[in-house]
Amino acid sequence: MKRKIASFLLFAMAFILNAAGFDTPKGWFKGAGHPPKYDIGVDTGAGLNGSNAGTIKSILPYIDGSGKLAQRFKAGKLAGHKIRMTGYMKSKDVIVYAMFWLNAIKLEGEKAKNLAYENMMDRPIVGTTDWTEYEIILSVPAEANYMVIGAWLTGTGQIWIDDLKFEILAPSSLQVVKDTTKEEQGPVNLNFED
Fold first, then answer.
1. Domains in the chain and their CATH numbers?
2. Distance (Å, rounded) from C-alpha 125 to C-alpha 91?
3. Residue 31 pLDDT > 90, yes or no?
4. Minimal CA–CA distance to 87: which of 15, 140, 164?
5. Cβ proximity of 55 and 153 under 8 Å
6. Is residue 20 pLDDT above 90, yes or no?
7. Which residues contact 69 (CB under 8 A, 6 or more apart)?
8. What is the pLDDT of residues 32-60, one digit of tens each?
9. Looking at residues 153-182, what average pLDDT do you find?
10. Per-residue three-class SS string for the chain
11. Does residue 69 contact residue 54 with C-beta atoms inside 8 Å?
């Protein structure tokens, strides 16, 4: 009986904290576990130079799982190119790890096929860090029709993300050919100001 009461109290605490938390940013979706283990959304004024930032914050003292803030958009002109996604992240008391990730998929009806994926598992963010710019480079297959981007936090702590950008790179170098951050039907609200 005590175990059921403790589980209920943890669930109620998570529900109350999550209900009073951050608003979901326009164009983004969140994954916080069930019951919710993270408060995810826009942290007003917490971004670079006092702007807004996306955030993922653990709301329980111990978490076996991850919280994600993600966005899906049409691949458009990114398909068939090598691309670079850059973004800023700041962390506080991250115990396990945090990172950005980037995925090229082919979506047909309800079925999604992963075509290319890259993350920062080889350089995870741990502990407390100031705003730092990170990049992920991905060769997007020509048949990709959607991209999924995001940040994730595993375990406890808090992260903030801001000012994400996309660039198409020359095929055999890291020279920027085109900044596609503001392409029609591309990613939206990458600075969390909308």
1. 2-179 (2.60.120.260)
2. 8
3. no
4. 164
5. no
6. no
7. 25, 28, 29, 30, 40, 41, 54, 55, 56, 150, 151, 152, 161
8. 666 689 999 999 999 999 999 999 999 99
9. 80
10. CHHHHHHHHHHHHHHHHHHCCCECCCCCEEECCCCCCEEEEEECCCCHHHCCEEEEEECCCCCCCEEEEEEEEECHHHCCCEEEEEEEEEEEEEEEEEEEEEEEEEEECCEEEEEEEEECCCCCEEEEEEEEEEEEEEECCCCCCEEEEEEEEECCCEEEEEEEEEEEECCCCCCEEEECCCCCCCCCCCCCCC
11. yes
Residues 164 and 187: beta-carbon distance below 8 Å: yes
Band of pLDDT at residue 187, cut at 50, 70 and 90: confident
pLDDT digits (tens, 9 = 90+) for 113-145: 999 999 999 999 999 999 999 999 999 999 999
What pairing do the DSSP bridges indicate for beta strands 53-58 and 125-139? unpaired
Mean pLDDT estimate for the chain: 86
Q: Which residues contact 172 (CB under 8 A, 6 or more apart)?
A: none
Task: Name the residue with tokens 């955030």.
Answer: 55
**Statement: residue 14 has pLDDT above 70:** no
Half-sphere exposure of 28 (CA within 13 A, CB side): 28
Positive or negative, the CA dihedral 165, 168, 172, 175 is negative
